[in-house]
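User: I've been trying to design a sequence by hand for this structure and keep getting stuck. Would you show me what you'd pick, starting by listing the structure so we're on the same page?

Assistant: Good idea, let's start from the same input. This is the structure you sent:
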């Protein structure tokens, strides 16, 4: 797992109240997580913005961009983000 993937996985897990192990497994989809809600999405956006130094516009909050850890990772890279400790 790359440092970027690990950082995204941690943000997702913390936002959903799940373990990084559960979130990091192949095939994990955010919308299928029982704890996924608009509040969890908002928390995830804030965590990603702080952790990666990016701004996420409302127009970018789509299921395609936030469907999985790999989709979120690709989006963060597209926005020019890099993990901050």
């Amino acid at each position: 797992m790359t440092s970027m993937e690990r950082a995204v996985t941690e943000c997702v897990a913390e936002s959903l109240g799940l373990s990084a192990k559960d979130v990091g497994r192949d095939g994990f989809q955010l919308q299928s997580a029982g704890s996924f809600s608009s509040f969890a999405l908002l928390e995830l956006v804030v965590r990603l913005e702080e952790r990666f130094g990016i701004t996420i516009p409302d127009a970018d909050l789509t299921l395609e961009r936030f469907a999985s850890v790999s989709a979120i990772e690709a989006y963060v890279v597209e926005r020019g983000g890099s993990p901050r400790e």
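That's my pick for every position. To get oriented when you compare it with your attempt: The mean pLDDT is 89. The chain has four helices and no strands.
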